């Protein structure tokens, strides 16, 4: 059964539609709305939600995959291009083998090349993060929180975390920020054009307009394999490769490593497409509904995805999920931390070490308080 591989390809394509998305006919309005996403507003807030509605029996039987049952992920990103700052909040919930209810925040200052994580997220009792961390640390996490209530106002600078932990100075990227921005925009425009050109090639009667102005398009397995092939063909474009290389190098990937991996990545993508084409028992149905605003920008989008494997005629298996996106042309960023609000990794390690020693002393007395091996 190739349901996992098919699901991966469909997810990848659905997310590229989200990224591309993220007085006209329904088809023209639909396509125009998609094209406009390549030109984001100076300020914007985008919320993307993913919810697993149905999990096939074979995945439920797989312990690692069973964690996906009831999965709900909500990502909200507020971006201010003029300030070169953004804030992201991710909320994760599951109802399967492992119960998760976690909210995490990140503050990104692109100009200063800083990423901050507020420790207040670890003190928030609305979810079950404390319970999960206590299970991993045998209750030590609650002890650290109890003994250090002032940490609730502090932030960790994640951009320097790895070098502080390793004791080595991180190698700074020599890639110009403007080059990365240009490469990202060029890449977005080309992917968006490929997607919108495909939508324009479809029969007009496939686009249905509702009473509230929403436009719906149903996509099939044939649509996905055709669109995937067109996106795959982009990888043969030298300009596309150059843009991806600029972005990869800005993330610390060497140019040599990227060149070696690029050809392999393209082949893997083509193999996945062929695998879906060859799987005659697989059926893919995706219903895309967009709500354009008065300027034909996408105000909201909803994708209902259903992947069915009917190899076993008596027990067909289905993976179902719903993906939503909502965008507004405004961004309310939280206050970013000052230098006095940031705690160094060294100071944080000292607090953890002292709390660990205190914790083991309370359990075993003075004979087992050496925490030099506990890192």
UniProtKB/TrEMBL annotation:
Keywords: Signal. It comes from the Bacteria. Residues 1-20 form the signal peptide. This is Lipoprotein. It comes from Listeria grandensis FSL F6-0971.
């Amino acid at each position: 059964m190739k349901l996992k591989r098919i699901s991966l390809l469909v997810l990848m394509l659905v997310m590229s539609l989200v990224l591309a998305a993220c007085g006209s006919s329904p088809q023209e309005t639909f396509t125009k709305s998609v094209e406009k996403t390549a030109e984001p507003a100076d300020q914007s807030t985008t919320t993307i939600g993913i919810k697993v509605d149905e999990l096939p029996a074979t995945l439920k039987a797989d312990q690692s995959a069973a964690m996906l049952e009831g999965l709900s992920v909500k990502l909200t990103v507020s971006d201010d291009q003029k300030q070169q700052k953004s804030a992201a909040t991710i909320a994760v919930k599951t109802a399967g083998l492992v119960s998760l209810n976690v909210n995490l925040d990140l503050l990104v200052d692109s100009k200063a090349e800083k990423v901050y994580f507020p420790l207040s997220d670890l003190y928030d009792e609305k979810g079950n993060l404390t319970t999960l961390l206590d299970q991993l640390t045998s209750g030590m996490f609650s002890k650290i929180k109890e003994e250090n209530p002032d940490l609730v106002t502090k932030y960790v600078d994640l951009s320097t975390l790895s070098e502080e932990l390793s004791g080595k100075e991180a190698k700074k990227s020599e890639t110009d920020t403007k080059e990365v921005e240009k490469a990202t925009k060029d890449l977005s425009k080309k992917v968006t054009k490929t997607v919108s050109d495909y939508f324009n090639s479809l029969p007009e009667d496939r686009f249905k307009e509702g009473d509230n102005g929403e436009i719906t398009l149903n996509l099939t397995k044939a649509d996905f394999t055709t669109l995937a092939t067109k996106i795959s063909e982009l990888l043969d474009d030298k300009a596309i490769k150059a843009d991806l290389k600029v972005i990869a190098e800005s993330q610390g990937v060497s140019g040599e490593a990227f060149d070696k991996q690029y050809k392999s990545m393209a082949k893997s993508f083509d193999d996945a497409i062929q695998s879906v084409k060859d799987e005659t028992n697989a059926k893919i149905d995706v219903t895309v509904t967009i709500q354009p605003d008065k300027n034909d920008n996408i105000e909201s989008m909803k994708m209902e995805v259903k992947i069915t494997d009917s190899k076993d005629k008596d027990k067909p298996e289905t993976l179902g999920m719903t993906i939503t996106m909502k965008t507004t042309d405004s961004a309310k960023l939280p206050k970013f931390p000052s230098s006095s609000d940031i705690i160094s990794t060294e100071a944080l390690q000292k607090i953890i070490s002292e709390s660990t020693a205190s914790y083991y002393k309370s359990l075993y007395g003075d004979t087992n308080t050496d925490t030099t091996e506990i890192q």
